[in-house]
Amino acid sequence: MTDAAQRISELRNELDAHNYRYYVLDEPSVPDAEYDRLFRELQALEAEHPELVTPDSPTQRVGAKPASSLAEVKHLQPMLSLGNVFSTEELIAFDQKCQGLLSAGEAISLDLLGDAQIEYCCELKLDGLAISLFYEKGLLVRAVTRGDGSVGEDISHGIRTIKTVPLRLMGQGWPEVLEVRGEVFMPISVFDELVAEAVAKGEKPFANPRNAASGTMRQLDPSIIHSRKISFCTYGVGYVSDEAALPVRQSERLKLLHTWGLPAWWVASKKFKSVHVAAGYSGCLDFYRKVESMRDSLPFEIDGVVYKVDEIHQQSVLGSRAREPRWAVAHKFPAREEVTTLRDVEFQVGRTGAVTPVARLKPVKVAGVMVSNATLHNMDEVERLGIRKGDTVVIRRAGDVIPQVMSVVLDQRPSDATPVQIPKECPVCGSAVERTQLVKRSKGKESLSDGSVYRCVGRLSCQAQLKQAIIHFVSRRAMDIEGLGDKTIEQLVDEKLIGSPADLYKLQYEQIIGLEGFAEVSSNKLLKAIEDSKRPTLARFIYALGIPDVGEETAKVLARSLASLARVRTALPEVLTYLPDIGLEVAHEIHSFFEDDHNEQVIDALLGECGLQLQEEGELSAEFTAIATLGGMLDKLNIPSVGPGAAQKLAERFGSLDGVLGGDWLDMRQTLPEKQAKAVREFFDSAENARRARAIEQQLREFGMHWESEKKVAEGLPLAGQTWVLTGTLEVMSRDVAKGKLESLGAKVAGSVSAKTHCVVAGPGAGSKLAKAGELGVKVLDEAQFIDQLKAYGIDA
Ligand code: IVH
């Protein structure tokens, strides 16, 4: 066999295997880009050696056999695929070929050849799966997948559940029989939810929205299809009983289909305004660039754009080849997925000590950028992927997101591939690496489970953590010390000039001027910036400390509610959970951060010898006093079978914790049903539970809380006595934060709407609660109006 024949045979086998995986098993083994490359290599070789082309070559047929569980339907007209171009040169060649054929067929004039002779209808290339919809007398009678292009599968039952597919055409003038072609796809937001659900259930998620859409459409149960919110977009017609009923241009056809209720997304989109008709290849290129720049902001995946000769007459002169039309071409975007080799897995130590695996890859170009590292998130992810060093992996780079390892190509695993193991010691400082524990409390008991994060226990004695901690400490939204770049901080740490954030304030001019890139002016500037940072607000300071899981929002909540560093430093985890958006997990992180000796010393040094003066400290907020009620506290103890309602009853009856602890059985029985009363008794029979409850109560009192005053505090607030309901998705703030803000104004936040509800705040996706509010005539605010209302009360969103 010649070299060419040998390679052709290899390529055919490989492509057949991929086709089988893709179409029949629905488990793609390589990214599209890789498939395209092999396919084009085969096409090129066959073009050079036409004598080697055989009818069974993958280039000679349209696809592979469909799976057989759904009824097979033969297409009246084959469902073609599209040829691809990847560069301007290839696009120009396509345009010139069209011009040549059209002038030979006298469809355009020969002496006018040049750019802008042909008008192209420019469309998006949606990344989903092609389907055909049959309308007879305007009614949807059948929906079929593309299948192998000549025979597809009947998916009418599933398609009917897709809201964007009209069951009856709107308007008038449609031909008696009309076959509409288009793409079903899964919006990215729906895909992300589906992945999160699968991961939470420990199932293997779909690799991308297209696989998810295809996996969904193959479901035999229509309710699953319905629940997955698949969408549809049309891009043309197939069989029509009366061609004359349709316009003579593709662009006009799309507009007409749109008026019949068949969505051609970009026809009506605000971003596109209408179908784009471009003059010649240069017009096409303008469209390509425009779409490429908005690719990441579209709500669905596209893998390129499609140019179609706009005049239908010209299309018929150009005709089709076996697999694809001559009058259309897909201009593909650089692929977002590529295959490469995983050379090694290294472990990085972050600011909070988290030790995370990073993939070191054989460099590969993905979507136009060289990629040699990718994130592996954590060890759970490593396990889920089943990845080994030496594996061939699929990586993906989308937008600004850090490249990710998507999957392993198992068929290509070398025999010497080695498993990935978390190091026992920190690669930077040698301290122990320990798995984090998650604190959960249920039925009044705290329990621990393994977290997915491993941490170096070295804290600030670990140079990696120290560097990151200081980078964070000086950052703009923290202490805002300008002129201290990452490189400088690394140098300061490496040369042991600083060992903690407090040391920054002891830096001398002589030390700074000795650093790389510093001269007299810049050294003085830096000293001034350090000096100027000495009066941070409490919130900034808390954020700057870099407590694990405490971002800016949480730092603000802590500062606003507790209003003094002393209170934040000493707050018990349970007390912290009174604050909006702080769960037990974060509460424990905060508490143990302040218990750490080293952290204590650094904070004392900052506030003492370094001379920092915190701003905006003051009285415990009304927000906190309003939330920290006796009922709330009893509820937070998580006494088995005692919910918020029962906790409230106990508080009202006994008035204090002592009252509850010493309350006699009869009183207790009159207040609560026997089962709950018993549970309360049993709970406080445990000395540990009683001690913990007293400690919490005592702390709340130290913070200036008086149970008696709780009602009065609320009464003085602007929304006292009002009940509000939050529903739908809030985009600016989380529901918990919104709840906290309302409560700080004295309102109660309830879970259901009734005639007593004062106001409903409804975000996108609001359903029955919003409808109920409408029925009852309850006032409804959207999030923007709600934020305005908060502002009117002096509370920022
Ligand atoms: S036209 C005769 N237009 O891409 C031309 N296809 O790679 C047939 N696709 O099977 C296709 N967006 O699933 C066309 N605006 C668009 C498209 C589009 C996505 C898909 C379709 C087709 C595949 C070809």
Secondary structure topology:
Layout (H helix, E strand, L loop, with lengths): L2 H22 L7 H17 L23 E3 L8 E3 L2 H17 L14 E8 L2 E8 L2 E7 L5 E3 L2 H4 L17 E9 L2 H13 L8 H9 L4 H6 L3 E10 L9 H10 L5 H4 L7 E4 H15 L7 E8 L2 H7 L9 E5 L4 E13 L5 E12 L2 E7 L3 H7 L2 E2 L2 E5 L7 E5 L9 E2 L13 E10 L2 E12 L6 H12 L11 H9 L6 H4 L4 H5 L6 H13 L5 H7 L7 H11 L2 H6 L2 H4 L7 H12 L1 H11 L14 H6 L2 H7 L7 H11 L2 H6 L2 H7 L2 H12 L1 H16 L7 H6 L7 E5 L7 H10 L3 E3 L8 E4 L5 H9 L2 E3 L1 H10 L5
Parallel strand pairs: 2-11, 21-22, 21-23, 23-24
Antiparallel strand pairs: 1-6, 3-9, 3-10, 4-5, 4-7, 7-8, 10-11, 12-13, 12-16, 13-14, 15-18, 16-17, 19-20
Helix pairs in contact: 1-2, 13-14, 18-19, 25-26
How does this model look, in words?
One of its GO terms (biological process) is DNA repair. This protein is globular. Helix content is 41%, strand content 19%. Strands 2-11-10-3-9 form a five-stranded mixed sheet. The protein has a five-stranded antiparallel sheet with strand order 14-13-12-16-17. Mean pLDDT is 88; it is low at 62-68 and 709-713. It folds into six domains: 1-52, Helix hairpin bin (Helix Hairpins, Orthogonal Bundle); 105-332, 2-Layer Sandwich (D-amino Acid Aminotransferase, Chain A, domain 1), CATH 3.30.470.30; 459-533, 5' to 3' exonuclease, C-terminal subdomain (DNA polymerase, domain 1, Orthogonal Bundle); 538-623, Orthogonal Bundle (DNA polymerase, domain 1); 625-703, 5' to 3' exonuclease, C-terminal subdomain (DNA polymerase, domain 1, Orthogonal Bundle); 723-793, Rossmann fold, CATH 3.40.50.10190. The longest helix has 22 residues, at 3-24. Helix 1 runs antiparallel to helix 2, helix 13 (463-474) packs across helix 14 and helix 18 (538-544) packs across helix 19 (552-562). The chain has 797 residues and is α+β, with helices and mostly antiparallel strands. The chain binds 2-(butylsulfanyl)adenosine. 2-(butylsulfanyl)adenosine binds next to strand 3, strand 8 and strand 11.
